Task: inverse folding
């Protein structure tokens, strides 16, 4: 099948250290608080175009594939790790901002407390140490209203991962590989909440016309390929070389909106 979807839950991480720290400028969370764990302007535009309200909070993680890692496993792992990283960061910031006023004047010092769920405080631990919190259960509701969306896109040819080019010479190498062939674009998507982590993937087949060396050089000179998986943008100048696709167009741009909508509605 040129387009396929994997959709499943993963168990939450076993432990999370909750660090009490000074308040930060991170926004407060409400029932509709969605964060996009990506700096991609294309993902931001697509999510806004679909009518979702969200804030952008990018993160940086190692993106090298593991040895013999399958492309779908690779992109879903990166999407999950990005979303979990931002979920932790925002939960810690929210927890600190809520708890610090309770600590002032009590004589307690900042400390680390282990919690059993991602983003949640241990009910016996922090609560038992700070008596005013027992009268303020809203302290524990911040992570319950937080959802973080992570995504990662890669291009594969013959099941080999073709990431973003390292330099113009690498971009030319990738475009020569894609020339005259059909490749796959795979986007892994992860949605992390306090209750669960949903992970899925979308696959689209993309047909390329045969490219001349002059066309490749001229395209690279525009700079467009340099920050794109597979060294091209379907929504840009490369559109002239793509006579057909099989699957979700928005997946090739960088975010399969229909899949994301399904995941957000299911949370």
Result:
């Amino acid at each position: 099948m040129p387009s396929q979807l994997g959709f499943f839950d993963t168990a939450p991480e076993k432990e999370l250290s909750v660090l009490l720290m000074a308040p930060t400028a991170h926004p407060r969370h409400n029932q509709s608080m969605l964060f996009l764990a990506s700096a991609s302007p294309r993902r931001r535009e697509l999510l806004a175009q679909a009518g979702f309200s969200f804030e952008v909070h990018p993160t940086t993680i190692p993106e090298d594939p593991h040895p013999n890692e399958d492309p779908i496993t690779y992109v879903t792992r990166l999407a999950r790790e990005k979303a979990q990283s931002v979920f932790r960061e925002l939960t810690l910031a929210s927890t600190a901002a809520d708890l610090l006023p309770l600590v002032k004047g009590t004589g307690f010092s900042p400390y680390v407390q282990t919690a059993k769920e991602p983003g949640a405080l241990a009910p016996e631990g922090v609560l038992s140490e700070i008596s005013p919190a027992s009268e303020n259960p809203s302290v524990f509701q911040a992570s319950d209203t937080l959802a973080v969306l992570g995504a990662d896109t890669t291009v594969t040819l013959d099941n080999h991962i073709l990431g973003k080019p390292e330099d113009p010479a690498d971009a030319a190498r990738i475009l020569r590989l894609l020339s005259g062939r059909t490749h796959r674009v795979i986007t892994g998507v992860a949605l992390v909440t306090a209750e669960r982590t949903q992970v899925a993937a979308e696959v689209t087949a993309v047909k390329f016309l045969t490219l001349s060396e002059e066309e490749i050089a001229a395209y690279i000179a525009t700079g467009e390929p340099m920050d794109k998986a597979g060294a091209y943008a379907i929504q840009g100048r490369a559109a002239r070389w793509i006579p057909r696709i099989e699957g979700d167009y928005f997946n090739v741009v960088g975010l399969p909106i229909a899949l994301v909508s399904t995941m957000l509605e299911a949370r």
Notes: Residues 71-103 form the longest helix (33 residues). The chain has one domain: 5-266.
